[in-house]
Amino acid sequence: MSPSRSRFRHRVRRVRERVISLVTGSGSDRRERGNSSNGRRDQGDSEDLAAAGTDESARDSVRTNGTARVAADGGTATSTGFRVRDRLDRLRFNETLQAALFWVPPALLMGWFVYGAISWNFVISLTDWSGLGQPDYASLNLEMYWRMLDDRSFIAAARNTVALLVVFTGGALVVGLLLAILVDQDIRFENTFRTIYLLPMSLSFVVTAIFWAWMYNPETGMINVVLRGLGLEVFAMNWMSDPRTKLATIIVALTWQFSGYCMIVYLAGLRAIPDEHYEAAKVDGASTVRMYWRVIIPQLRAATTSAAVVLMVFALKAFDFIFVMYGTTPGPSADILAIMMFREAFARTNWAYGSAIAMVLFLMALAIIAPYIYVQYRRGEL
Amino acid sequence: MAHERLSRRQYITATGVIGGISLTGLSGYLSDGGVQEETLEIVHWWTAGGEEEAIESLLDGYQEANPNVEIDNNPAPGGAGSALDVAIRSRIVDETPPSTFQIWPGESLRPYTDAGVLASVEDIWDDNMRDAYLESVMEAASPEDELVSVPINIHRLNNLFYNVEVVEDAGIDPEGIEDPADVLEALEAADDAGYVGMAHQTTTEWSTVQLWETVFVGQHGADVFEAYIAGETDDLEDEVRESLDLVVDYSEYFSPDAGAIAWDEGNAQVINGDAAFIHQGDWAAGQYGEAEFEYAEEWDYVPYPGTEGVYSMVMDSFVMPEPNPSPEATEAFLEYCGTVDAQERFNPIKGSIPPRTDVPIDEFPPFLQNQMEDFEASEEQPTTIAHGSAVRPEIKSEIEEAFSRFIETWDVEETTQDLLGAHEAAGY
């Protein structure tokens, strides 16, 4: 029995059992030894536990072959021929095997190209591979990881990556939520506004990086022109060359690009909240702000979590945008790990060090994704 | 139920068809990428306007001379080879290199010669070629003991371009500027007259790297620069600091939007008459041509003050990687790149000069004719850091990082130490 049996197939089996029991009229039959509860992992589900109990008791006492004949105890009452047929039948009806055609090819492809590549990347990060020769797998150690602690470029890049991650995610969520609340007010041309807000997301980073660079231009850029027009010349800064605002230029542009996505996610969440909740809050005399803060927003937890995970993963990968705007060496105030990884691997052919940085990025992504997957799994939503 | 079964069957059929198609597509790649004796796969990064025309003209010439060879023109677009590096290095590691690829000669070749993946091209360099090339160019083509590449063009880095009208209006005589420190006075004069002194970009670091190295050569001479790039940096602290100090002084007169523009936007400020000077390689002249900005009347240039007699070379070359998928076609291509015909076709369009000194100058525009005369008359031809030939890629990347910090902080002390330690930090 494959321990990686999926929940989906389990459900399919249960449905099939039900259909068969309806057809044969018996409560529980056609069980295969292979489908015993030994490998079952979804113990959180009480219905499944109950089913497993039936399974356990039904397994040895009730056995049928193709003709729906009921045998009291297979161990004592059957001949050898019967056992072979029985086994063949079991094989025939074994869903793991039946389904293999569908799950083995993708599993192999995924295993090799995704998980295999990640594992191989980890092994490379343990070598000291650089240059255009082949790696030497004879001596593996953590030297590349120690090297990071001593590398001010790495520290700057890691700091910027975390800052980008936190501020961008927070910013995009807040802006997205505000947009969603506004669009949710039964306004006219709602669809038009929705499309307008979502549109930036469909643009490539290359395009948005170039036109944000134009907007940030201290002489002719829109931002400074508007500030000067409002008499706020003190605030008209050299946005892209001032180390204090360099990272902010990236965060603001990315927030602009992704808040539309957050809006859509939140809008779906808002639509799922029954009108009665709004009405009840109003009847109880809550102000609009208080109603949203106490009643509505707490119900958007699932939307927030899923949007945040997507945003954070995007933040880790904000490579294209920075690459177009600032090149491969953006300087200590705008460098991120993804750019540094590229620089180490392809400008300096330090493959091992580049791989180690990639592993750090991978672990960061995992640290974001894993709790989310776990919570989803616990809630039975996976 | 029947309907459901039908749709599942259709589903499976569709999956099968899609799978089949993708497999066919894949196998198409497999056979295409395989070794075919007579296909020359050439990888380069010349995909913008004039550059693309130049490479096509070169390949046309090669095709005429070798009608049997099929050419697989496979560019990897991306400024200064950023995408090409990725493609080529991965393919070299996988041992499936193309027939030939574009690369800066000199120290850029080191990672490849270290790994022993470049074939010697000593045989291709016949006596006729060796006589026509300058010693310094041949040295760049042979980072170790033997020649491994064939340079096809040379750009000059140490130019100071200017807008004639602006300079006259500001009362500056560019010919009279004698050294890099005097440039500062000229920038001041332009600033006083209400112009941007020096169009410059600091969005990315490379323009400042090349400005610094040109100032360095101008202040201390090509010999001291050669010592720096060779890693003999122990006694150079004052020299490095002095040149960085001057760059910081210049920075007061840079384009006010230097941090948000690309180099060609800076160059446009010279064309528009907003800025007086720009320091750039002679590829900047290509933009003047496109803008119909007239040489000698509207724009002109001087060798960067202090670097007269120096021709700072930015070169491109082609190499023969091993194992080579088409040894004969590649050899024929490299031979062709070394001919007068190839260089006469390629360079006028590219806006560079031929490395061969016996190419007739008639085909070239007046600006390049001047550059060709300057090149032949030049005493020293150093290579450049910013364009890969002077230091190994690892050291170049260290220096670029130092300058990416420099253009944020303009901290001369820190950058001096970074530049002195760049070789060591990169492990050389």
UniProtKB/TrEMBL annotation, chain B:
Gene3D superfamilies, per database record: Periplasmic binding protein-like II
Top-level division of the source organism's lineage: Archaea
Pfam families: SBP_bac_1
InterPro entries the record matches: Bact_solute-bd_prot1, SBP
Coiled-coil region(s): none
Designated name of the protein: Extracellular solute-binding protein
Organism: Natronosalvus hydrolyticus
